[in-house]
Amino acid sequence: MQRCACIGVSLLKQSRGHEIICASRFEFFSCGKRVEPPKRPRSGMIYKCPRRFSTRIGFNRRRTMGPSDGTASVPRSTTEHDSLISSASTYEYEPLTAGDSIRLLSLKPGKDQERLQISFAEHRIPSENEAAVSAVNYQAISYTWHPESGGEEYDTVSCDGKEIRVTKNLADLLYRIRTNCDKELWIDQLCINQGDAREKEQQIPLMRQVYQQGQQVVLWLGEENQGTRKAFDMIRILHGLFCSMRDRGEPYPSPAHLHSDDHQSRYGLPGVTSSEWWPFMELLGRNVFQRLWIVQEIVLGPRVEVRCGSHTITFEELGNAAVFLYHTGWITHLQEAYIRSHAERYVKPLLVDMVDIVEDIGRVDFIASLYNRRLHFQAGETESLEQLLGSLRRCKTSRYFLHDKIYALLGLVAASSLGRIPAALLPSYGKPYTEVFRDATRYLLEKGSLGILSHVEDMSLREESFTLPSWVPNFDVFQRSTILGLQNNATAMGYIAGGQEEVMCHFDDPDVLELDAYKVDDVLLTGPAYETQSQEQFLEESARLVDLFQPYPTGEAMVDAFWKTLIANSDTVSADPVPDEWRRHFAGFCMQSAVEIRLQNEMDRLRAEGALSGDIDVSAILSERLLTIEGDHKNCVLLIRTEKHTIPIAPFTMQPWAPGLYNVFTLGMLSTGSVLPQYLAENNSSLYRKAMQEMCYFRRVFTTASKGYIGIGPPSLEREDGVFVLRGGRVPFILRKIRGNEFRVVGECYVHGVMYGEMFEARGLEWTRIRIGHGTARRTVT
Sorted alphabetically, which InterPro entries does this protein's record hold (predicted)? Predict the structure, then answer.
């Protein structure tokens, strides 16, 4: 149950979260970077973590940390520190007497800088059939072990005349909440003997009751800084806006309102580029908001107080503020404005994709989803382990205790399992984390769902030497593409590619999955992976794969199969296949993409000619160079507006620069009458662009060899890989043959004409038993 301290760095928006790994891999994790203490003295011991292993009280549980914006206390002098260490004896825990018992901590009264004093008392957790409310009123703490500085400083507390070392961030909290009377608390760092692995394993299954039965949960964000008060004031303003609009039934304001002149007078908020937003953005960027452990702690708590230094708000206020910013779309503009104003902090060679860094600034999406998850839980709605793993995979735990990717969710799993944690998921830190991942995956498969196979990340994200079987996701790596087979997504989009038959899995070897499969076809052609290139270029190069003169296996036009494939035949809202009116949205997007490609080509030429500097009227040059209206398709015109010119462009003239889009648009759509020129003005190309982004990112388009299907699949798919439907599976999969009937998983895919059980309409379909094991990244067919 480890949450350690190291510096977290997110490099890719839809990729695994990379971190700078700390130097020591023992119980105490040191980032090897000295953190200069501020100048506020306080009694008590604070010292840097030693590199060598401690055999007494270990700190085996907390979350990785990141950049500094907090304050800290000054340690005593080295001489005084050493004398205190040598004169104090270390507290030794007494074993708990029962499996359903916990320790509660009593924080003793104290003033200002007086030493922290605590005591422990053992309490039994009431069972499901006993009193719903514990006889003891206590507060459960949700926090990170170490401060925002990322350093590893420690303080001590006194317990029965002996010393217990605690992290600086926890000591800060204890000083803040200490009053003139005893305060009962549950804090994992102190109430669990961190040096006893067996006790930790016994205590984790009790986390649900611990957080549910307390008086409240305190979410500690860390010490305050000079901007904290402004940040909390902003949260209250946003919360008030959310409540007033909700109560009056008003729609959310659009992003345009954020840029309007009357924005401040209408909403009482500063402009989007105002530095008054920065303390708020930085508060929501604190590392506690990317930790996996806090999810169950916040969801389960009867009441949640958010505290930063001396400032407090309710989690409802924070949640409503986040929901407001998320649904208005304002957060994206605020993130971009923040990054522009702090460019020197983020623009670094070889490190930066600006869109990716945005995610670590003001984590509104995480807070909004956490708040909604809490509301649904309070309404009696629970989530399966598969759903939790899919939606929370980006959240972080310690790199050295990756078991917690599963164990940190067990409180919510128990809530959906009538209070019981399945035996296959019970904590065991003695097992390698790869076995924990494998056993959790096998548990879900044996429950009758193949959905967890869709969570397997692309082979490019797995190390060659990795010991996980290919059918087991590495839950420490974020699945960068939208998971089509995720329970919520597949149900919403109506996918039943493998039919509604019972899933039949076998495990004669714990690392080898045996199941029934039907081979649809082999991969023939593959387009580029949509990752670093523009959407327009991805669309153009993918369009070149399509043979518009060939009939599609479903009987529909090839061009219709193509545009539906790019959005997985879904409008992302309803369970029905995408309506035909989206054909116009696609046509509009094709035109815009062709124009973008042509404009970029001309801009590159101007740049090469040195015409992008000085007082040269670039729009006038473009107006002269770009072709204008002519031909029979004169209604198919886009107007490019600049400050001085309006440039009409006929996209059908773009053949030299975008031949793929030219063919799709003119030969596939206009010439067949599937889209008429006079109706193109009714398109919503941005709607199609957004849907394609969601479904195609970190995927590539492919065609199949003998049957001519079109699909989108993982970046690592190759020619001659097999396209399979698995018995009872929601979506098809790309499998790579190793030898005989042995395969490895490459990844899930969308294949147009296969997603709704069409394979079962053909007579004579026979299942074949296949084996999926480790395999290799490279093809080794014999």
Answer: HET, HetReg/Transcr_Mod
Q: Same domain for 684 and 547?
A: yes
Spell 224-254 as b/e; 16+ CB within 10 A means b.
Answer: bbebbebbbebbebbbbbbeebeeeeeebbe
For the question of whether the overall pTM of this predicted structure is more than 0.70, the answer is yes
What angle in degrees, to the nearest 10, is found between the helix axes of 535-543 and 558-566? 150
| Helix ranges (DSSP H) in 643-775 | 659-662, 685-696
In a domain, 476, yes or no: yes
Q: Which amino acid is at 314?
A: T
Residue 378: inside a domain:
no
d(CA 774, CA 467): 8
Q: What is the DSSP string of 664-681?
A: IIIIIIITTTSS-GGGGG
d(CA 551, CA 753) in angstroms, rounded, equals 13
Domain end, chosen from 670, 695, 720, is at: 695
Do 766 and 651 reside in the same domain of the chain?
no
The pLDDT score that the predictor gives to residue 755 is 95
18 has pLDDT over 50:
no
- Please identify, among 220, 243, 278, the residue that sits at the C-terminal boundary of a domain: 220
- 647 and 585 fall within a common domain: yes
Helices and strands per DSSP (H, E), number in the chain = 26, 22
- In the three-class reduction of DSSP (H, G, I as helix; E, B as strand; rest coil), residue 725 is classed as strand
Residue 24, number of CB atoms within 10 A of its CB? 19
* Among candidate residues 14, 108, 13, the one with its CA nearest the CA of residue 699: 14
Contact 478, 394 (CB under 8 A): yes
Q: Based on the domain organization, do 500 and 590 belong to the same domain?
A: no
List, in order, residues 6 or more apart from 233 with CB less than 8 Å away. none
Label each residue of 12-76 as H, E or C: CCCCCCCEECCCCCCCCCCCCCCCCCCCCECCCCCEECCCCCCCCCCCCCCCCECCCCCCCCECC
C-alpha to C-alpha distance for 715 and 748, rounded to whole angstroms: 11
Contact yes or no for 74/48 (Cβ under 8 A): no
Looking at the structure, tell me whether residues 614 and 575 fall in a common domain.
Answer: yes
Nearest C-alpha neighbor of 568 from the set 371, 713, 357: 713
pLDDT confidence tier of residue 721, bands split at 50, 70 and 90: very high
Domain count within the chain: 3
Give a three-class secondary structure readout of 691-706: HHHHHHCCCEEEEECC
Q: What is the 3-state secondary structure (H, E, C) of 273-319?
A: CCHHHHHHHHHHCCHHHHECHHHHHHHHCCCEEEEECCEEEEHHHHH
- Give the per-residue pLDDT at 375: 97
State the Cα angle at 198 between 193 and 200, rounded to 5°.
50
Q: How far apart are CA 532 and CA 698, in angstroms?
A: 9
What's the whole-number mean pLDDT along residues 348-361?
48
The dihedral sign for the CA sequence 605, 609, 613, 614: negative
In a shared domain, residues 133 and 165:
yes
CA atoms of 394 and 371, how far apart (whole Å): 17
From residue 642, alpha-carbon distances to 211, 329, 639, 751 in Å are: 58, 26, 10, 41
Separation between Cα atoms, residue 63 and residue 291, nearest integer Å: 6
Task: Kindly tell me if the per-residue pLDDT of 638 is higher than 80.
Answer: no
Whether residues 721 and 732 fall in one domain:
yes
How far is Cα of residue 612 from the mean position of the Cα atoms in its chain? 40
Q: Are residues 542 and 527 in the same domain?
A: no
Tokens of 561: 């199969």
**Would you say residue 258 lies in a domain?**
no
Buried b (16+ CB within 10 A) or exposed e, 96-129: beeeeebbbbebbeeeeeeebbbebeebbbeeee
C-alpha span between 712 and 6 (Å, rounded): 37
Task: Name the one residue in this structure whose structure tokens are 């708020």.
Answer: 280
Domain span at residue 736 reads: 425-531+697-782
β strands within 558-716, DSSP E: 638-641, 646-649, 700-704, 710-713
Do the domain assignments include residue 278?
no
Residues comprising the chain, all counted: 782
